[in-house]
Amino acid sequence: METSKLPSNKRPRGFTLMETMIAIVILSVGMLSLAALMSKMTGSTEQSRYMSMAALLASEKLEDLNRLPNIDPEVAVSGGSLTTDVGNQSVTFNGSTELVDYYDSVMISSGNGSISETMVGKDASGTVTYSTITHSPDGTVNPVISTTAPVIAPDLLQFRRRWAVEKDAPVTGVRRITVGVTLTSPAGGPPVNFQMSMVRP
């Protein structure tokens, strides 16, 4: 029986140390790039979630204001600001005077799914009051009026809504209502600001 021998220059060789090191470096760069991409995608997903919530809250407030009759002091005259809290404004229209707030806070729990909306105002004696309406996932609604600010739990997202009413804008005879929503307690990441407008008679 004859055995064949390979010539010494044709013997199978393994990887050299240099080839192994280059392969490890290339693999490491690829894995780091993949980790950076995953981190960026997670941040973008959270940003999109917060923007969606802000859009929903702005739309909700516009619908609430659109339901009010034209003679309601909240929408009858120009007022409010999108950059600062404007509250306890004495507004008189058609012989009726009311204190009007052009801002509120909305707190959304990331744990149990409940949504709380808090409005700050003053009662007839001038005492600051906090009206909080909590909507639970089971459908129950719990209104609470207190003279102390509600406690903000660490798992809550807090949004500030401000709105402005412009009479005779963009044309005479209509009102433009603009709502701005800002995430005031972000869980990290870039700030969230959203603005939406509507025009009504």
List the helices and strands and how they pair.
Layout: H1 17-67, H2 73-76, E1 79-80, E2 89-93, E3 96-100, E4 103-109, E5 115-122, E6 128-135, E7 141-146, E8 156-167, E9 175-183, E10 193-200
Antiparallel strand pairs: 1-8, 2-3, 4-5, 4-8, 5-6, 6-7, 8-9, 9-10
What does this structure look like?
The protein is α+β, with helices and mostly antiparallel strands. Helix content is 27%, strand content 35%. The longest helix is centred in the N-terminal third of the chain and has 51 residues, at 17-67. A hairpin with a 5-residue loop joins strand 5 (115-122) and strand 6. The strands form two sheets. Strands 1, 4, 5, 6, 7, 8, 9 and 10 form an eight-stranded antiparallel sheet that branches. Strands 2-3 form a two-stranded antiparallel ribbon. The radius of gyration is 30 Å and the shape is elongated. The protein has two helices and ten strands; from the N terminus they run H-H-E-E-E-E-E-E-E-E-E-E.
For this entry, give a set of tags.
201 residues, eight-stranded antiparallel sheet, alpha+beta, 2 helices, elongated
Task: Determine the strand fraction and express it as a percent band.
Answer: 25-35%
Roughly what percent helix?
A: 25-40%
* Helix/strand structural class: alpha+beta
Which parts are unreliable, with pLDDT below 50 for 5 consecutive residues or more?
Answer: none
**Principal-axes shape call:** elongated
The ordered string of helix (H) and strand (E) elements is HHEEEEEEEEEE
Largest sheet: 8 strands, antiparallel
Number of strands: 10
